[in-house]
Amino acid sequence: ANHLAERAQVSRQIALAFERQIPFIAWMVLPYLCSGLFYAGSFFLVPDRAALRLLSQRLLLATVVAALVFAALPVQCGFVRPAVQSPVLALLYAGLGLVDRPYNQIPSLHVAYCVVFWFALRDTLDSRPARWLLAVALLLVSVATVFTYQHQSLDGVAGALLGLAVVGWVRPGSHEVPVALHYVAAAAGAIAVVGVGMWMQKRNTAKLA
Question: d(Cα 58, Cα 25) in Å, to the nearest integer?
């Protein structure tokens, strides 16, 4: 979806006026990138096979829905990230730019995933302080999407709604549905994204002609 938006030179933006006052905080790239640790670690932290299946289905559904929206409604980030002075942080942002182009904006998958992670991991923690620590960590990952100029506020709101919708749709006890069905849905989503890309390329070719 990023590639298709870049090819089409998408310039649509959804930044709100007040967001011009949001500062860029360079170190926020650290919690932003920690989402990868949550993503990898969550599969090992859930308590049993049923919880693993539930987590996998929720993450897969959120990814497919978001990818379809990205392809159908590509949006460009409305902010230009200033130069980063710290060499270490600059290197992290450079790596981020290679894998996370500024087009897959709404909904924010980082935020959607954080909602899913919360519901998957909160019951694995016995103490209230540990749950509070988990909540703060996931909240920090979510707000980092804005302070790193990767997303706007509407992206975060939409991501939270997507996460809640996925959690509400795929509930404990409903995972008797074969997991293959979810992979079929993922394949259908991938085909749809490719189809949208071919249509956009054909349209752009016709305009140039």
Answer: 31
